Amino acid sequence: MAVEIPFRREFSFEYGRLEPVAPMIRRIVARNPSPFTFRGTGTYVVGQGEVAVIDPGPDLVEHVDALLTGLAGEQVTHILITHTHRDHSPAARPLQQATGAPTFGFGPHAGGKRGDAGVEEGGDWDFIPDRTLGDGDRVTGKGWVFEAVHTPGHTSNHLCFALPAEGVLFSGDHVMGWSTSVIAPPDGDMAAYMESLDKLLARPDAVYWPTHGPAITEPKDHVRAFVAHRRERESGILECLQAGFSQIDAIVERLYIGLQPGLRHAAARSVNAHLIDLVGRGIVESDGPPTIEAHYRSVRGGTRNRFSGHICCAAATDARLRVMRQFCNINVVDG
């Protein structure tokens, strides 16, 4: 029986309007809907008078102007970036020019190189935070304190931002209510993503506000469903390999029934992320680097980790690191 994810797609908003959505929290949605952004990027404002802005969004003049109009008479003191995809961080530049506020993030974009074919909305290679944040770092403003939660997986530089006193987590693209996250190598990493999901399960946050779509009011159930979904997907990939389907295109065709043609590339990258993880754990072999074009086959000897439920093998961490280095080097050289 397929895992049922409790998706939340009811989403009430008005483009170009900064609206209160919870105590201390306002949101304005950019007009950039797509199969990867849902109705658009939700830019959050936290506080009153002296405020923080989370994920300013794409560099759309109408969006930045509407945000600044909604904040007339207030001062932006902090600009926080969950990660460097082009639907999240580029508007930090015009917002900073207009307000002088410093930017905060984990670091610049990573994985591949400028000009590579993008997945989803592509990477923002120009963003470099004024102040870098690591896991557990705190950012304090007027009436609020954020805790940075490093959640690599969707991207290596992905941060969630918690308001511990309010039980709120701004979850970026790591956990969304309307869809699962795309994990696209080389910057997307399935093993890191699963570890980051486990990390959220150990936290006390009561509600998530993703950058796309509505709030998640039962986050533990939602995250558990995501974990179960990924385990189910991994099992499906292994079944495909055992049935003789050795290439990613054939696996996508078999697993993603009724998939929109425009999402096929993203699905292939997600399967690739699973296979990179499986190769690194000694469960699968590839005929060379584990790329989109490679042939794969399952091998015997994997065991199930009693702590996380993931399949593993001896020296899995070292093996996975070797695979990722090889994969990333191939992508950089070949473009």
Number of strands: 16
Helix % is 25-40%
Structural class call reads: alpha/beta
Strand fraction equals 15-25%
- Count of alpha/pi helices: 7
Shape: elongated
How is the largest sheet built, in terms of strand order?
1-2-3-4-5-6-7
Largest sheet: 7 strands, mixed
Q: Give the termini distance in whole angstroms.
A: 40 Å
What ranges have pLDDT less than 50 throughout 5 or more consecutive residues?
303-335
Succession of helices and strands: EEEEHEHEEEEEEHEHHHEEEEH
The overall pLDDT, averaged over residues, is: 89
| C-alpha-based Rg, rounded | 20 Å
Present the secondary structure layout:
Blueprint: E1 19-22, E2 25-29, E3 42-46, E4 50-54, H1 61-70, E5 75-80, H2 92-99, E6 103-105, E7 131-132, E8 138-141, E9 144-150, E10 159-163, E11 168-172, H3 190-201, E12 207-210, H4 219-242, H5 248-255, H6 264-280, E13 284-286, E14 296-298, E15 303-304, E16 311-312, H7 316-334
